[in-house]
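pasting for ref
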Amino acid sequence: MSTRKPVTSMAVNSVDELVYGKCKNPITTKMGIEIGGGTVYPELNHTLPPMIVNESTIQEAYDIYREMIEGILKRAVELHQDAVTIEYETVPDFTEHPKYGIESTKIILDVMKEYNAKYGIKSALRATPNDMREMTRPPVMRSGSFWDGMLEFFNGCGEVGADYISIESTGGKEIHDEALQMCRLDQSIFAMGVMAATDMEFLWSHMVDICNKHGMIAAGDSSCGFANTAMVLAENGYIPRTFAAVVRVASVPRALMAYEMGATGPSKDCEYIGGYLKAITGAPIAMEGRMACGAHLSPVGNAALVLPDLWSNESIQQVQLLSGSAVTAGMEQLIYDCRMMNTATKLGYQKQMMEILQESDCHLDPHAYILRPDVIMQIAPEIIKSENPLVRTKTAAACAVKVLKDAVKDGKVAVDERDAAYLDIMEEQIADIPDDANKFWEEIKEDLDLSKFTAKDYDLA
């Protein structure tokens, strides 16, 4: 099994080295697309419309996937795009019944190969099966039919030829949801810095081994169920925006575990802290922002476009618009964004483009502010001073609080009084957290609903 190799030094040592389209450790796909080599490519993320998936409807689902990928690639050819990447986020039924997901993966890949042969367009596929382990209560994280189904799906993706695999894993989410509702940063840090970190090491040891076996790239995980949930709750006024921004930065060590287990990127689009991963590991990253509004709203629409190597739309369903299908329209929008950015680079205006994108958002919301490259380079080196995931998570949160307090004081970011006051509350909560995971567990478990998770699956006594 793969073992953890902690990252102890930065891949990037200057903010000037952080740019879109280029990273220290680019990857090359099976058709020869170099991701992170200087060009930003679109990554169209697509999924089925609402439907029941079973033996009587699966052929319809297959036909929809074929229709989607044909529409996506046809429009790319019409717009003279020479290379695209595709992400295929499965519906839960496909991971529960791996044969559905594997056959759909094959259908998508067959069309991609056909378009490459006919039109010369290169493409790459990211397969992202669901983490089905949370479908039982309490979740069973290391065994059982859902775990076996995930492994079968991962292996099947490799057998039919997917380029890379990702997942939005859920280890620790059992208590993180309530931590968000109650604005308990200590519980959030325990969920991500202890539970999720432990699960990431277990999960990604298997994923990396499977990728090595089948010649796939282990891409990256996503804190969608953690930090994206926080961002959406804040956007709807349920929790402070500062709290959501700090949770976002605190998710960095959790995401980093995948790379320490052997993942190489590109990171998952809804992992908004991709810039931190790029700076620490040198891996290419996928990002989403304004193009993700078909899936969820956010305050980081342009700020997220400052550093991507792949520019994504989150996930969009096959529904009909006036112009055509939503996925086809999504590909057109992504292509034009990428073309604009790549042209700015060719004309020598890359830094100006990055500044425009950054400054248009970063002063208006703390979540956008913590995505700034200069903020990333202030926080990221502090995170990796320790190899302990809990200490890293504490450090990430503490640094985010300090950066935001300084920014509020200097008038660099718009934060209302309630949200600003919560920075002091979070600072106090962090100060009370021990560095030792076992001690933290003994202190915090009386505040947790122990019926919601299986302690032994997280190596908790």
